[in-house]
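Continuing from the previous page of notes. For each protein in this section, the sequence appears first, followed by its structure tokens. Read the first protein now.
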Amino acid sequence: MPHPASPAAFDFLATRRSHPAKTFNGRVPDSAALEPILNAALRVPDHGMLTPWRILVLQRAALLRAAEIAQKRGQELGLDEVAIGKGRGQFERSNLAVAVISAPVIPHKVPSSEQIASSAALCMNIVNAAYAAGWAAQWLTGWVAHDEVFANQAFTVVAGQSVAGIIHIGAVDSEAPDRPRPDPARIIEWITQ
């Protein structure tokens, strides 16, 4: 039987927007509300069924710990106060975040690039599932996500792994403004032969 069209789902995807995490009002999903979001998000392309990722749910105390690690690590790196503030701030302002850790299975016949892409797809699925469940979400990275020392201290990321994304989830009091989108005519090429 062919898959039926879902106009509501299509409209949702066609109009989805990101809310800046700094606009969240402090209310977050509890575990009973978050678990179905994560379960839905797990329906992601995963060649070879390798589950080449880990999911960390960061609650307030863990986020404050990550903020302190970011502060200390930023100072060790000699970053300026603006950069340190950005790294620290995404955790300090948040009440709930989901970190997706890319953990490719190597060696394996499925290329690591496909496994890493699966981690990115998981991040996007979490964002979309959170929105579909009535929450706002923003996928962030920043220097903290790319610094191996921070990632190890905050998220126990080891060699061969990386932070694919940190998805902040919460509630907002107003709709997010839309941003300019790419012009499809400039980026889509139809191959006819």
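Done with the first. The second protein uses the same format. Note its length before scrolling.
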Amino acid sequence: MKDLDQKIQAALREQRGAAEMLAEPNIAQEVITAAFRGRHRALTTFTFVFSFVLFVGSVWAGVKFYHAATVTAQLQWGGLALLLIMMVSFIKVWFWLEMHTNRVLREVKRLELLLVARGGAE
């Protein structure tokens, strides 16, 4: 059992210091450090850029909607703008779920650190 505790403690030391582990990051630090430095950083970067492109496309479709001459054209451009905005919203929800997963993993690591520290004091 002590061997397992020592392995956990060594693994936690390799990842981050105990003081840094116990610090609570603000939302900007959480987005930047956890999301873009995690194991899914390529996917997160791709979805971030893709959501920006979709947002620009929705603004473009909204401008086309405003300048459309016929009702049919307005419905088409308005539908496209709505679809693009919905896609951006879905990506943002996915991003927030990833942040929540990172937050839960950080709390589990904190608990491991506290258990190892408490076990070492006995």
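What the second structure shows: Residues 19 and 110 are 10 Å apart (CA to CA). The chain has one domain: 2-121. We return to this in next week's lecture.
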